[in-house]
Design brief:
Number of strands: 0
CATH architecture: Up-down Bundle
CATH topology: Four Helix Bundle (Hemerythrin (Met), subunit A)
Strand content: under 5%
Shape: elongated
Low-confidence stretches: 1-9
Largest sheet: none
Bound molecules: fe (ii) ion
Number of helices: 5
Order of helices and strands: HHHHH
Length: about 150
């Protein structure tokens, strides 16, 4: 089965620099670039069927995502961002999903599951979230002048 998987695997769509939106807060852009690099690194490990590396990168992604969302939520609180609960709900939903994917991988050790996660939602959702909710937050914070 693993041999068949290696033969048919063509790699998920990598996130390119041009796809990452440029927002009004530079630290948010840095974080989104780091996140995209981790996702692309995960994709490479999946394509090489490197189980231990996939596991390590999944935990790196989880730690980075926790840090990323905590920083955004702090910005929302400090600026009294009106869409705080709506935005935080999306962060919480995504974190639950990521943790359940990691849990599934730890039990089943199937790189295909991670491929399906990257291709089936992670990359597209990450870019969409940055381009919509994060863009709105960055503009609000910039205009409210709470982050220098
Ligand atoms: Fe966000």
């Amino acid at each position: 089965m693993a041999f068949l998987f290696i033969c048919i695997y063509t790699g998920a769509q990598m996130i390119t620099l041009e796809q990452i939106p440029i927002l009004a807060i530079p630290s948010m852009n840095d974080t989104h670039l780091e996140e995209s690099l981790i996702i692309n690194k995960l994709d490479v490990a999946v394509s090489n069927n490197e189980l231990e590396t996939i596991h390590e990168i999944l935990h790196e992604l989880l730690a980075h995502t926790n840090m990323h969302y905590a920083a955004e939520e702090k910005m929302m609180e400090e600026s009294n961002f009106p869409e705080y609960y709506k935005h935080k709900k999306e962060h919480d939903r995504h974190l639950v999903e990521l943790k359940s994917v990691i849990n599934y991988f730890e039990i089943n050790k199937e790189p295909r599951a991670i491929y399906a996660y990257i291709e089936g939602g992670l990359s597209a959702w990450t870019l969409h979230h940055a381009n919509t909710m994060d863009r709105e937050l960055a503009l609000f914070v910039k205009e409210s002048d709470t982050i220098k």
